[in-house]
């Protein structure tokens, strides 16, 4: 059967229709990418756990209910059942070297199966892995990270745990093997891109995270409000790792000093749909203290018009070629720095409407889901 040609009304050219499998999920990236790819006329299947309690949308659920023997048997049965249909795709993209909730040896077997039975297989550099940890531990690539925080003598507890998981282990070997054997590697953040660059520059691409702005209503923030509504999302198991413990302490200090101007809303370990609902109605979101770049949660908030306090280092703007917009209130990883920036926002709240408009424009310019989907197709097919 000859491949179909699809006339794309947005971009005005023809592309061959492809069958694409997106395997695994972090932060709703694969599902949003799938929306863009489908709009461009491609057939897409998303298979994932939904990123556990976040319950992101997917076509096929690959969720491990528990670590018990029965849970393992059921999960393996689900994997074997669905993998029998994971054949004949033009493109397979895995979210991470550990794209299944299995031991490294079994994941390697699954990766080799995907390579044998499909066209091209791509690795996503979208989260914690060996190469990113190596870059952090080297202390030569980043000015700070979760593993190297100024004015702190010891690394975060979760950083030590991840070091034990990924360095000199089967996971390290798995990551190296998959990176070497994959047809290409795509990084969604500056941090992940520079971590892989010294080793795989010839088959590495940076592509911004996709945001479905067509489905997100923009509301300008900071207009006609007596005070400022701050929002912070907390994952109880990863609060220290994300820096929300430090950010929350600084925010509560600001609230104590400016009780009539600073209002705080928290969302603790809730499903993604509920998280987005709770975020609505806020003006400012605090997110990812140790990041250099805004990730999916921050970008979704920016599309709504919220102003982000978090990762907006110069490297973030340089990698996307942005020379005009500066919508993110960047903070260095310390409680005093976060508090100083929060107090500045409260005292200069007349700047919020302009930052709100810039936030939406920034996302539309660099992260629109159709534009990003086109970038993926170009990289996969070149």
Shape: globular
Give average pLDDT, whole number.
91
Radius of gyration computed on alpha carbons: 21 Å
- Content-based structural category: alpha/beta
Q: What is the name of the CATH superfamily of the largest domain?
A: Glycogen Phosphorylase B
Order of helices and strands: EEEHEEHEHEHHHEHEEHHEHEHEHEHHH
CATH class categorisation of the largest domain: Alpha Beta
CATH fold call of the largest domain: Rossmann fold
First-to-last CA distance: 23 Å
Give the strand order of the largest sheet, numbering strands 1, 2, ... along the chain.
Answer: 5-4-3-6-7-8-9
Q: What is the helix content? A: 40-55%
Structural domains: how many: 2
Give the assembly state of these chains: single chain
Largest sheet: 7 strands, parallel
pLDDT < 50 runs, ≥5 residues: 1-14
Q: What percent strand?
A: 15-25%
What is the CATH architecture term of the largest domain? 3-Layer(aba) Sandwich
Count of DSSP-assigned helices: 15
What key phrases describe this protein's structure?
about 375 residues; alpha/beta; Rossmann fold; 2 domains; seven-stranded parallel β-sheet; 15 helices
Give a description of the structure.
There is one protein chain. The chain has 382 residues and is an alpha/beta fold. The protein has two domains: 220 residues, Rossmann fold, CATH 3.40.50; 154 residues, Glycogen Phosphorylase B (Rossmann fold), CATH 3.40.50. The protein contains 15 helices and 14 strands. Helix 1 crosses helix 15 and helix 3 packs parallel to helix 6.
